[in-house]
Amino acid sequence: MSKIAATPLPHAPSYYAASANAAPARPALQGSVEADVCIVGAGYTGLSCGIALAEAGFKVVVLEQARVGWGASGRNGGQIVHSYSRDIDVIESHFGRAVAEPLGRMMFEGAQVLRERVAKYDIQCDLKQGGVYAAMTPKKVHQLAEHQALWEKWGHKDLSLITDKAQMRKLVNSDRYAGLLVDQTGGHFHPLNLALGEAAALEGLGGVIHEHSGVTRIDRGPTAVVHTAQGQVRARFVIVACNAYIGELEPKLAAMSMPCGTQVIATEPLGALAQELIPSDYCVEDNNFLLDYFRLSGDKRLLYGGGVIYGARDPAHVESIIRPKMLKTFPQLKDVKIDFGWTGNFLLTLSRLPEVGKLSDNIYYSQGCSGHGVTFTHLIGRLLGEAIRGQAERFDAFARLPHYPFPGGRFFRVPFTALGAFWYEMRDRLGV
Ligand SMILES: Cc1cc2nc3c(=O)[nH]c(=O)nc-3n(C[C@H](O)[C@H](O)[C@H](O)COP(=O)(O)OP(=O)(O)OC[C@H]3O[C@@H](n4cnc5c(N)ncnc54)[C@H](O)[C@@H]3O)c2cc1C
Asked: Do 192 and 47 form a contact (C-beta atoms < 8 A)?
């Protein structure tokens, strides 16, 4: 049985919630309904899949325990980052060419799906073009060059590596970096407004979304029955898209993964100073193991994120964690006020690769993008749609990746993982 909040869960106190586009109240499920597909969770995974299936004529019902985009999808950094949390060279070296090949062919597709949806359904989410990966040491610049070569090998030709200081300052005006890899096909957007726009698109296609409808149990069978406190959906197919917020709903999925928190702050609007900080208006993430990510919002605030809390305890003072990181990058912001600070959970897997598969013949899941899910969730939504329509080849390419339980079980997985991460963090601090 999943533990479901007795009272409605409000959105996290983020800049995104404060600047969200108007959205209808979506009543909780009451009574018994029938659907072709019942999707649990209204984040990008659920919504993206819902749109793919509704476009193909399926009757889709989405059940969300809180609000549309309440999870990571409504609170993230809003950065379009290609590929997977472990890149395709690591996948190839661990699992071989035959496993890597189809994944490599799909590593830039998620961003295309996202952009197609924004254009097709006219979603107002401040979508901007251009992203930058930043390196702090010569060794890390070398890693960027390897990254560029790898992605070029897989067909991405829109990358350029810059090490000239004056040129770098025209993109990101910080002293911290030794090199920048510019990706013209990266970009950024308002994450909650993307989720709200996708929800509206799904409803426009005949899909139904019930908020405040936490799923407590899924009964297996040729017709699965998905239960909430006040209702049930009988469906031919079910998709579990709960990611880091799954709780106790499906213990098998929870055991293979670990929720982790990461925090974001939003400054007050910066006016002309915003353009001085990031003249390109591109999004930026560094290539450290525990990375910082930042960008400007539509109304010219700096949104700065970073940090990882293994096990996802909500920190009391987000600003005190993230502000020092921001000031290392932009000391010129020392007198700037922070208007918002929030935390959100992503789902880490031991391999850092997504976990995709089936719990039974007609119950599918996808989870665990390990902090790198904006594009993957859009890709997998499409692939889940293909699988349910009987073309499972591309879905199976991900489903065949092995899923590992975390060492240490439920009680020791957090300290074990934190210890491992500490090693990589020290290497980054030493610049090796
Ligand atoms: C702060 C932060 C910054 C990030 N920044 C980036 C970034 O810049 N770029 C990037 O690529 N990735 C980023 N990520 C990761 C990315 O946001 C996620 O990978 C992605 O949004 C996951 O989408 P999802 O739909 O799978 O999960 P979620 O968006 O978390 O959605 C899961 C939904 O399931 C619902 N749910 C759970 N249990 C139940 C239940 N029993 N019944 C009904 N509903 C239920 C939840 O309420 C939730 O709404 C970030 C994550 C965080 C937290």
From this structure: no
Q: Are strands 302-310 and 79-80 parallel, antiparallel or unpaired?
A: unpaired
Q: What CA–CA distance (Å, rounded) separates 361 from 338?
A: 49
Question: Residue 415: is its pLDDT beyond 70?
Answer: no
Gap from CA of 268 to ligand 1 centroid (Å): 25
Q: What is the DSSP letter of 426?
A: H
Atom of ligand 1 nearest to the CA of 45: 25
pLDDT tens-digit readout, 77-107: 999 999 998 999 999 999 999 999 999 999 9
Q: What is the pLDDT of residues 141-178, one digit of tens each?
A: 999 999 999 999 999 999 999 999 999 999 999 999 99
Asked if 230 contacts 28 with a C-beta cutoff of 8 angstroms, the reply is: yes
The pTM score is 0.95
Which residue bears the tokens 């997504």? Answer: 354
* Distance separating alpha carbons of residues 239 and 301, to the nearest angstrom: 37
Please report the pLDDT score of residue 2 as a whole number. Answer: 45
Q: Which 8-state DSSP code applies to residue 313?
A: P
Ligand 1 center to residue 259 CA distance, Å? 10
* Ligand 1 atom at minimal distance to the Cα of residue 46: 25
**Ligand 1 cavity residues, CB under 6 Å:** 2, 40-46, 63-66, 70-73, 75-79, 81, 214-215, 241-247, 249, 262, 264, 293, 305, 344-346, 369, 371-375, 377
Do 162 and 171 form a contact (C-beta atoms < 8 A)?
yes
Q: How far is the CA of 73 from the centre of ligand 1 (A)?
A: 4
